[in-house]
Amino acid sequence: AVIAELAANHRLLVTVEENVVMGGAGSAVAEALAARGLSVPLLQLGLPDHFVDHGDSAQLLASLGLDGNGIAESIRARLGR
Q1: Model confidence pLDDT, tens digit, residues 22-71
Q2: Could you tell me which of 70, 1, 80 has the C-alpha nearest to residue 41?
């Protein structure tokens, strides 16, 4: 019900996770949208499906575009801003 309500009131849904996107939370949101026949754009942000270096988590998230600035930039890009 929450996902349907968000889809009705927003032009873009965004999921962010510190996990691989495929099979993650974003995939569950995509399934929920599809099951309800809702076609709102969905931006799924998360780890790529390949080896990620180890190190300081803040630096790693920034390098993957998953820090605040990277997330904001991805959203702006998707919205065409």
Answers
A1: 999 999 999 999 999 999 999 999 998 888 788 899 999 999 999 999 99
A2: 80
Helix, strand, coil tally for the chain in percent (to 5): 45, 15, 35
CATH code of 11's domain: 3.40.50.920
Q: What is the pTM of this model?
A: 0.88
Supply the range of the domain harboring residue 32: 2-79
The Cα–Cα gap between 1 and 60 comes to 34
- Residues facing 44 on adjacent strands: 15
CA dist 28 and 77 (Å) reads 23
Number of structural domains the chain divides into: 1
